[in-house]
Each structure stands twice: as structure tokens, then as C-alpha cells.
Amino acid sequence: xEKSKLKYSNAKILYVDxxxxxxxxxxxxxxxxxxxxxxEFPTKALEMVETDPDIAVMIVDQVTPKMTGLExxxxxxxxxxxxxxxxxxxxxxxxxxxxxxxxxxxxxxxxKPVDFSSHEMKQxxxxxxxxxxxxxxxxxxxxxxxxxxxKLIDDKDGHTHRxxxxxxxxxxxxxxxxxxxxxxxxxxxxxxxLHDIGKISIPDDILKKPGRLTALERKIIMTHPGRGGxxxxxxxxxxxxxxxxxxxxxxxxxxxxxxxxxxxxxxLLSSIVAMADFYEALSSKRPYKxxxxxxxxxxxxxxxxxxxxxxxVVDTLLEVLVDEKLISREDLEQSVKEAxxx
Length: 342
Ligand SMILES: [Fe+2]
Ligand SMILES: [Fe+2]
What we know:
- This protein starts with a helix and ends with a helix.
- By secondary structure, the chain is of the alpha/beta class.
- Helices cover 55% and strands 10% of the residues.
- It is elongated and about 75 Å long.
- The chain has 16 helices and 7 strands.
- It has 2 domains: 2-135, Rossmann fold, CATH 3.40.50; 157-341, Hypothetical protein af1432 (Orthogonal Bundle), CATH 1.10.3210.
- It binds fe (ii) ion (2 copies).
């Protein structure tokens, strides 16, 4: 095991079990080969995962106070997506095994009692650590490539400093209020970053033109969602993000572009990106405008609620603005009333 220790010298294994004897036994037999952390309490374990990025593997008992091992793994993976989770249980029912596999939370499923001192156990732990790093590297490449593309998009469109990244931030804030699956959240995170990728194909002299655009130039700029959709669709690994590029200028009243889709024809994730895109544009400084006051933004989004943007998505953005303490609830309600009266 000496080699493995050297190769992954920072990696830590966290074992969560309410039976102290198990924790001690594990520590005694495995400590020499790996860095071990233990906890009797799931909430404490979550804090550890949150504060210690070196935790690579978490072993959980299915029956722990206040939280099942399944719930614990689900929460921990939200904090640390590449954490390799191992279920160690004394009551391995068929339904538990099926649920574990379906949720894709566990890399290994072990039945108590296990011999912590065995060679197989140590080999398994080493493989679990390896799995964590492989997962991290694999996803890191994808994440890095998408971020690089987003930087290129933002550089290309000289007016909009960090626009793609800010649209991503606001899409995530809005998306978190919906009951999205982990996969949909990842799609939203990636799609928001690439929503304007079609701008890569727009000539610089149009995109960076300081003055007013001619009707033809405006038409050319309006091709960017379609171009972006086509670009992403042509790459199988990115195709599922295409609608966030293609549909982010669509409107529920059918007056959007490029396809003039209506209400339910526009996917939810694209509607969220559209809202974040609009908010970002109003709240940022541009060469031709100052950032809008939050009250003015509220009035504007209330005005176009249901026509330019989905009603529920507008309401969710307004909730986020209050959560973020950018406006008080009283001022928000007042601004909405003023917009409705106008
Ligand atoms: Fe756009
Ligand atoms: Fe945009």
C-alpha cells in the first residue's frame, strides 16, 4: 500500500457509523495505509465534507441517527459531486440495494460484518480513491472546456464583461428554486454558460459596433441563437444544451426569435436562461448605459410578465432578488403595483 499512499497522499476516507466499535475497528486496521476521519453523526459528516476538500471517499452505514445512509450520500454528493460513496450496512434488503443503484449514489455496496484488516478491503479503498480522482479529472476536462468557450464568447462580444458567467450565476439562483434533478442542474449550469455561443459566428464589426445598428445588422445579430443551437447540436456530447442557446430569445407570447415558439413549447431551462440573460443585461453596465436600479428592473420584469417571460419564472426571479437582499419585500410589492398601474 506504500505506493498508493504516496500517489494520493492527500486523500481522506470518512467513515460514518453510529456504532463506535465499528469506527474504532476501521481506524485501527486501516489508519496506517490511509488518512481516516470518522463520525457518529451524519450532520457532522456533512460539515466535514463541506470544509475538507481532501475527503475523497465516504463510507456510510444505512442506519444512522436522524438520517439514512442514502440521504446522507445524496446530500454529501450535492456538496462534493465527485465523492465516492460506499454503503456499509447490516440490513441489506433488496429494495435498499435497488434504490441505491437507481439513484447512482454508491460506487460499492458492502454487507456487515466486513473484515477491515483484509487485503481486499484495502485494495477496495484504494480503488475507491482512484475512482474519485478519475471522476474529478474526467469532469474537470468538460468543465474547463465549457468555461474556456464561455470566456471566448465573452471576449468576442466586447461590450459584455463576464456576461456568460453572470447569466450562469443567475440561472443557478433561479434554477435552485425549481425542483430540478441533479442532471438538469448540471445542464442548466453548462447551457447558461454557452447560451450565446452563436455570437462566435457574428462578424466583429457588427458585434462590436459602437453606434446604432442598421436593420440588416440587427437581423444578423438575431441569427446568434439559431447558430448557437446548430453548433451545440452538432457535437453529440453538448447536444442536450442546444435548446438553451436556440431558445433563449423566444417569448411565451410567440413574438420571440428565431422560431416564434409559444408558452409551453419553450423548455423550462431555456426560459430560466432567458430570464437570467435579461436580468444580467439590465443590471450590468454597458458602454451605452448604466446599470438599472433594482426597483426599475422589478417594474420592467413585472411589465413583461407572461408576454416576454414565463409568469412563474418572473415570480421566481423576484423571490431571488428578495432572498439576495437586493430589494425588500415591501419595496418589491410597491414596484410591482406601480408597474401594474402604469
Ligand atoms: Fe443572446
Ligand atoms: Fe446573452
